[in-house]
Amino acid sequence: MTEIDDPRDRLIVALDVASVAEAEALVERIGDAATFYKVGYRLAYAGGLELVPRLARAGLKVFLDLKLHDIGNTVEEGVRAITDLGATFLTVHAYPQTMRAAVRGRGRDGPRLLAVTVLTSYDEADAREAGYALSVADLVARRAAQAAEAGIDGVVCSAAEATSVRGIVGAERLIVTPGIRPAGSGTSDQKRVMTPGEARAAGIDHVVVGRPITGSADPRAVARAIVAELA
User: Fold this and answer.
1) Residue 183, pLDDT score
2) d(CA 122, CA 21)
3) Neighbour count for residue 3 (Cβ, 10 Å)
4) Cα-based distances in Å from 109 to 56, 74, 103
5) Domain ranges (residues) in the chain
6) If you write DSSP's letter for every residue of 64-100 in order, what string do you get?
7) Residue 180 carries which DSSP code?
8) Residue 158 DSSP SS3
9) For 51-87, what is each residue's pLDDT tens digit?
10) Scanning 25, 84, 135, 149, which has its CA 20 to 30 A from the CA of 126?
11) How far is the CA of 67 from the CAs of 22, 72, 113, 209, in angstroms?
């Protein structure tokens, strides 16, 4: 696990809202309780890419969760174009050709690249339906090893696989986990989940939390409670 001086940096708040205005209002409500925000599909395609540099200029970190996957040249050029936005993290799917292309496009000054192994909304039945012969755990392990070989900076996986993944990718690479739910909150569409405290004990570097914070009447208080548990 990497050393992180400010425990707030361990929490990534998912700005899974419909508009930039909603996202900015949420960031303001959370205030200094959080320092790291995720911009995913929903917000990115509603003007959220323009929000990324604004958040970066405000001293906040941004996890740009676009899960890129295409032919090598397209991924390489896409990552190169994203570099100027100022995001801290960028996701790609953990396919070898895609990861190698992303590393080429990132160069020296681009965001840290995270490879998405298996979505946390997938269980064994979902993997079989998608045509994978491997179990979820074996598929995650294989993709984590390929990510390390490709020079990716870290992986996105379920907290349930974090311990085994750490043994594969080593201490120097990041492990980022969605599907984190504070005790007492629902799992929503996630199937492989943990609490923040369990995730921290498993050696995870950053946790992504959305609805338990963004859907709360007091998102700042919830963010602070999660950070305290992570610390």
Assistant:
1) 62
2) 32
3) 5
4) 15, 19, 11
5) 7-230
6) EEEEE-S-HHHHHHHHHHHGGG--SEEEEE--HHHHH
7) B
8) coil
9) 999 999 999 999 999 999 999 999 999 999 999 999 9
10) 149
11) 23, 14, 10, 17
Question: What is d(CA 116, CA 1) in angstroms, rounded to the nearest whole number?
Answer: 18
Residue 34: both structure tokens together? 């959080």
Residue list, annotated binding site for substrate:
16, 38, 65-74, 120, 181, 190, 210-211
β pairing state of 112-116 and 154-156: parallel
Question: CATH classification of 7-230 is 3.20.20.70, yes or no?
Answer: yes
Structure tokens at 221: 């208080």
Tokens of 97: 């050709």
Distance of alpha carbon 139 from the chain centroid: 18
Neighbouring CB atoms inside 10 A of 197's CB total 15
Annotated binding site: 16, 38, 65-74, 120, 181, 190, 210-211
Distance CA 130, CA 95 (A): 15
Residues annotated as part of the active site: 67
219-231 pLDDT per residue, tens:
999 999 999 999 8
